[in-house]
């Protein structure tokens, strides 16, 4: 997860540093130019003159925004850009003294509720979470979708199911037995004390007072005109692996790096749907062999495309890589290129494993 932290005062900067230390993934702290010198050089920092300018850029650049300031300021800043719970970043608000942390936007799918709980625990703050299902202690299907990197379809079904759960009704979960990793999803649901039913082929019709949540392949979801009532589908998001490597790295080392990277997000390399890298590596034997072994395809992108993503998302660059191939970030930039215009959420920012660098991204 790529996280942007914002502070407006010297006290806020101190809290931003504490929160940055508790965040998994890459962080960038944004503070006013007048506070230059209030933060250690060990933190990636952006200095700004106008909060509105950096907030606009950050809204589409990061997976999460953590704002240490008045809630009203944050609401006014993000209001023009909030679009959909399926795509908006997680937005959190903390008071300067770190007494309260508020999950403000994208609580379930964007992960704001979970991030709020985690950061509040790290700094001793009181988490403020107002989504109805969380308040009533009900596990919402879109929260499960966030945990398992599943895409809810249709969007309107989220509210239908969640409203029913808040009102005390129950939802039945079904898992397509032909779905790759069906056992993984089943185990996760059972760990949450949900008893899903496996199915193969046609599902039973939805009864008059029944609510169904169905985990299946995207191509198995019916058209809107044929969508059954009171039903929410959850379909796996593509996991894209961006890979950079030194020349001549053997297949075994690349496979080992991929295994380690995937284990860091609780998956195995079999979950990877596609690979991406720089066109400089188009003939890299070890990389091509690893992709073949996993039965996937790889896309190679030119420096111009990678540079565009580096600029658009403010990706951190390596001087060594830039001097070697012409751009300073391969793994993250290539993964974002492969995700296309919808973009994605970083499951694992660029991470080095010896001579191999891997970034993992869930396609939005």
TrEMBL record:
InterPro entries: CbiG_hydrolase, CbiG_N, CobE/GbiG_C, CobE/GbiG_C_sf, GbiG_N_sf. It comes from the Bacteria. SUPFAM superfamilies: CbiG N-terminal domain-like, CobE/GbiG C-terminal domain-like. Residues 54-134 form the Cobalamin synthesis G N-terminal domain. Pfam families: CbiG_C, CbiG_N. Coiled coil: none annotated. Residues 239-360 form the CobE/GbiG C-terminal domain. This is Cobalamin biosynthesis protein CbiG. It comes from Selenomonas noxia F0398. The lineage of its organism: Bacteria, Bacillati, Bacillota, Negativicutes, Selenomonadales.
